[in-house]
Amino acid sequence: MALRIDQMDRKILAELQQDASQSLDLIATKVGSSKTPVWNRIRKLREAGVIGPQTVIVDAEKLGFDACFFVLIRTSEHDADWQTKFLHALRARPEVMEAHRLAGEIDYILKVRVANARAYDAFYQALISEVKIFNVTALLSMEEIKHTTHLPL
């Protein structure tokens, strides 16, 4: 049975998306409830998989990861063995922040965070040594205009 998300759940999720380190008391006050019902709702949302692990958002540039590349990958291989090898290679590379399989002319898009162009080249060389890729296009992000982890609840 699917979990029903009501308006109170949405308010709680919006608060958690804003700052998951808020106290239960503060969240309860903001959403117009008390601590125990808010805790029970959060627990149910976690158990249903709506809420995943709590993490922190780290400023990449302040840690020296100044370059963000979007990497477009086209492959001529589409068999299960190639895909398994490719996915293993991506998951093993900490530089890959996101990876998506696409519909259309491009097969995959990656978001890669590295220190600079040399670090990207090292990533690229390692990737193509592990798996055969037909075509790779790397696009350097000049400026991040918007970044959010918030869903529009």
From TrEMBL:
GO terms for cellular component: cytosol. Coiled coil: none annotated. Gene3D superfamilies: 3.30.70.920, Winged helix-like DNA-binding domain superfamily/Winged helix DNA-binding domain. GO terms for molecular function: sequence-specific DNA binding. Pfam families: AsnC_trans_reg, HTH_24. GO terms for biological process: response to amino acid. SMART domains: HTH_ASNC (SM00344). InterPro entries: AsnC-type_HTH_dom (IPR000485), Dimeric_a/b-barrel (IPR011008), Tscrpt_reg_AsnC-like (IPR019888), Tscrpt_reg_AsnC/Lrp_C (IPR019887), WH-like_DNA-bd_sf (IPR036388), WH_DNA-bd_sf (IPR036390). This is Lrp/AsnC family transcriptional regulator. It comes from Maritimibacter fusiformis.
